[in-house]
Amino acid sequence: MAYNFDFYSPTEVVFGRDTPSKVGQYINKYHGHKILIVYGSDRVRQNGLMDVITKALADDSLTYKMLGGVVPNPRLSKVYEGITLGKRMGADFILAVGGGSVIDTAKAIAYGLAEPNEDVWTLFAHQRTAKACLPVASVLTIAAAGSETSMGSVITDEKTKEKRAYDDDLARPKFAIMDPELTLSVSDYQTECGATDIMMHTMERYFTNGGNMAITDAIAEGLLRTVKTNAQVLHANPQLYEARAEMMWAGSLSHNNLTGCGNDGGDFATHMLEHELSGMFDITHGAGLAAIWPTWARYVYQDDLPRFISFAQNVMGVTDKGSGEMIALTGIAKMVQFYHAIGMPATISELGITLTDDQCHTLAHNCAVAAGGKKGSAKVLYENDMYQIYKKASEA
């Protein structure tokens, strides 16, 4: 039986070659005047992208200031820095030039500027809900997080090592400029971490215990097969525009909730487990997801066996005959083979991390607290379940 759902995806997507030169006209369309540009590394300056963007803004009589230095697992301190700069310049529009970390930072800054008398971290600590948010848009430079069309933002308080998410439709970007050519210079490691994140956003919505619709499953399975294929293509030949285009569009579709319509809201336990791990060790998000998922899958598959059988057959191409349990386990094993084929880890130990028992308990406790005591749909996980997954993934 399909569950009721409300699908809301208002972001205008501007896709294809040379689209960054149109950024000024789109900001004008959405009534921006004073633009705070948020970006990460100097790569966007060195490759000429920032020159294209600033020229486009000047051509449309828009003023701007820049905030660089956003890093993976984006930091709360950078958000506060952006809020201070935005207040000083009177920013009324936030433009993210980069990937998920940059876009998430831009969203957090936009919340902070819209409610200047509130501490933005209280949103991510789930102590209140947002009442306003400045408009946000992006020029995407990596296919990964899907933040360019999603309601989500994830920020790390580097002082406490807490990595927390806040989801609100107020922060959905007004538009996303997506030129696949901008991803041609992304390293193989970051490309494959991105592919892992894209797939996981879909898999979190796929492995549920109720409300699945055939059309949603078909979209999800097709997306997963497409990303799986093109991740391997790009691992061998990173300069193929067509494969980059497939990955970029898949990243947006994976996280605007299209692949979750009609289900119970999704599982997202793997994401919660990874957030604590990367909060403690500052690892790349996609690699952390790959390191946790196989252990999570082996821990929960018996509670969601029909979905794991469908995944094995329709995504991983398992044709073996035998028990449903054997088919499910073969699908999980093939996913591990895929991770290794594109240079991703499949255990925490493969990240070069050996968790102590105390660390496993700390991670599990913090994850359970952040999740409100429990998390999951394929199997509802409590603190001890989380501990067991951390422990097994570290020992494997």
Automatic annotation (TrEMBL):
It comes from the Bacteria. GO terms for molecular function: alcohol dehydrogenase (NADP+) activity; butanol dehydrogenase (NAD+) activity; metal ion binding; methylglyoxal reductase (NADPH) (acetol producing) activity. Residues 195-393 form the Fe-containing alcohol dehydrogenase-like C-terminal domain. The keyword Oxidoreductase applies. One of its GO terms (cellular component) is cytosol. Keywords: Oxidoreductase. This is Iron-containing alcohol dehydrogenase.
